[in-house]
Amino acid sequence: MTGRADRANPVPALVLSEYLPYRLSVVSNKASGLIARAYQARFGLSIWEWRVIAVLGGGEAITAQAICEATAMDKVTVSRALRALAERALVRRRTSPSDKRAALVSLTPEGQSIFDEIAPLAMEWERSLLEGFSAEEKRQLGGLLDRLWQRADELARNDGGLP
Amino acid sequence: MTGRADRANPVPALVLSEYLPYRLSVVSNKASGLIARAYQARFGLSIWEWRVIAVLGGGEAITAQAICEATAMDKVTVSRALRALAERALVRRRTSPSDKRAALVSLTPEGQSIFDEIAPLAMEWERSLLEGFSAEEKRQLGGLLDRLWQRADELARNDGGLP
DNA sequence: CCAAATTAGTTGCAAATGATACTAATTTCC
DNA sequence: GGAAATTAGTATCATTTGCAACTAATTTGG
Question: Boundaries of each HTH marR-type domain copy (chains A, B) (predicted)?
Fold first, then answer.
């Protein structure tokens, strides 16, 4: 049982509005777009700068590499976000004593205070987006997204393994 | 009952990996990225060119405006995609007889044959992504995404209505 | 212990994207 | 009937992004 299409199981017609990658993309852009506009307008932060701040908000000093992993961002994107944040003195970089190639990044007090200000707003935005969803539905959504995430990683690993 | 945070209902801490807009964005990028790479490599199509082809695959000649609505793409993006597709002779544009500002766009035979070739692959990619999901789970996922879509539209309409 | 390979992070350049302004055709409505 | 406002689509320019090449430090393995 391959699940592959044949005479008995024809491939259903493609309808863009029903196509999962399309729907994910539109929903994600709508959701992120709303909030990104707000970050930008109120704090002058790009969505990537915000992501970096979000992971640094925990208080630990971590390397750019660790930021890449925690944010699913490319190292170039992280590098640029860090440069912008450092220029505004929202983060500080100290060369790691154990590896002089790497820098340990942490929020400055100003960075931390921006985090403290945005974090609750971010949670409100999320809540607002999920208004009308029951706790059970939120749980389902989370679980389904996790599985899609995992599945996409698997497919990427097999270099597509795609048709 | 505002749902707003107070002493009794504190705002939960922000954890990026649990944050819905972030998760949506990552999942969407992973899913689209996989498939977009395949469009590009095999057919030289950008994701937008593909979306345009997908809506034209139905066979109707429609205006760029209608394509915008059907694909959730910006009119500039549609214009560029159409230019690229027209250069490759995958679409044809005829001035609309009823409105000389608008052009009715349709696939050429070559365009149609590309659609016919990709559409089943696209369905396979989707199936592959959803491998392991029960019919019920797929239905749930679809419903939840629809509601998020709708909700994001509502929020955008109230200019954010966001905090 | 040292040459080769790997890793951290940055930079430079080409291509993609987005915002704005523009042209041309059409509608509105006085 | 025609001036003003609207709409379809395109062009322009600044910014962002993505890729590949690069520097510097570290690890590997012979």
Answer: 17-150
